[in-house]
Amino acid sequence: SLTPEVMESYWLPFTANRKFKRDPRLFSGAEGMYYTTTDGRRILDGMAGLWCVNAGHGQRKIIEAIKAQAEQMDYVSSFSMSHPIAFEFAHAIAQVTPGDLNHVFFANSGSEAVDTALKMARAYHRARGEPGRTRLIGRAKGYHGMGWGGLSVAGMSRHRRDFGPLLPEVSHLNHTHFPDKNAFSRGRPAWGAHLADELQQMMAIHDPSTIAAVIIEPVVGSGGVLPPPVGYLERLREICDRHGILLIFDEVITGFGRLGTAFGAELLGVLPDIVTCAKGMTNAAVPMGGVIVNQKVWDGFTAGPEGTIELFHGYTYSGHPLACAAGLATLEVHRDLDLYARTRRAAQRWEDTAHALKGDRHVIDIRNIGLLGAIELEPRAGEPGERGSEVNEMCFQEGILIRNTGDTLVLSPPLIIEDAEIDRIFDTIRNALKKVA
Ligand code: PMP
């Protein structure tokens, strides 16, 4: 049983022990749109776990695939060997990516995928005879995981605070997608494409021939759900092309259906050179991450006289059989459910229902794209983040799981959400907003 001593032994992420002892929410079951707590309460999952259980919890086909694979072969290394499902899964991913993003490398998390992508970007330029192209550029509000690379390019100073010094030769774009407070834009803001020009302005400080890559989340997720302004990504793409800089989209959240297309790049209409993914890739049933590169990047590594170059990078669990089996089954489930079209339909009601909170107490902005949503609350004077945390807790007491980053409530439900569940989530938030101080 969970005695205080047992509880002490587990240091939860993002906490030190003192905070942990406060009262963690303990879950023991999950099915469809719902979690069950250890004390038997049913909780409507407004976060798809942590932006990851896109097809809903407990999908039978995925569970069966994992079981069958575990029975057949638990593990094989990916160093000079592999197994057929790894190739089949990579191919299946390539089938649903836009453009020529057709070459997949497997990692085990979003953080590993990001670090892999950053390493690949540098290696790509080196392979093409430009070893001086090493600078990596991130952006304010960006979240790219907890590895040294991802942390270095991240735009969350709070996350970096305790761990410096981080990677050298990293710069950050200072703008965010916020067009303005109180914008209440539905979907993508019309204003703000020019913000991308900050990248061009950076060239006055850093010679463009020293810049390897720019990494952004096409829709900022953990930083508070910020959809890109119309025309913004096109402008960023154009500047990168002009200077031979690789563009990396971190699609750890937006990949695998969240925006109503397999990848966000498809909906947003701009193709990056490299995509990182994780989370929804296996419906979160087994940890996995991936890096998908386009033909240009692939050729950069492989077009030399030696053919495929040796790149000393890989993980013990790259292409783990259980993860590949889960991933392949996940894509089948997406097809069976016609999940992306279904998501696009649900996203319409999602937008309308979310924006109906405009004018409610404390609400200063509402943002949405696909099945992502954010409701930004006015911080309580002298207590930033408290109001957001209190609303989060009130929702949980009413059986709804949401998240808050400070005073911004963020939402990312399983894509199988029904209309009544959309209504329930926003009704519960509305009631909490009436009560919270
Ligand atoms: N990139 C993005 C955009 C993410 O949202 C996350 C996780 N929230 C990561 C990277 C890191 O993924 P992981 O936690 O699986 O390492």
TrEMBL record:
Keyword annotations of the record: Aminotransferase, Pyridoxal phosphate, Pyruvate, Transferase
Cofactor(s) demanded: pyridoxal 5'-phosphate
A GO molecular-function descriptor: transaminase activity
Signal sequence interval, chain numbering: none
One annotated Gene Ontology cellular component of this protein: cytosol
Matching CDD domains: OAT_like
Alphabetical list of Gene3D superfamilies matching this protein: Aspartate Aminotransferase, domain 1, Type I PLP-dependent aspartate aminotransferase-like (Major domain)
Family matches, as InterPro entries: Aminotrans_3, Aminotrans_3_PPA_site, PyrdxlP-dep_Trfase, PyrdxlP-dep_Trfase_major, PyrdxlP-dep_Trfase_small
Family (UniProt): Belongs to the class-III pyridoxal-phosphate-dependent aminotransferase family.
PANTHER family with a match to the protein in the record: AMINOTRANSFERASE (PTHR43094), AMINOTRANSFERASE CLASS-III (PTHR43094:SF1)
Protein name: Beta-alanine--pyruvate transaminase
Taxonomic placement: Bacteria, Pseudomonadati, Pseudomonadota, Alphaproteobacteria, Rhodospirillales
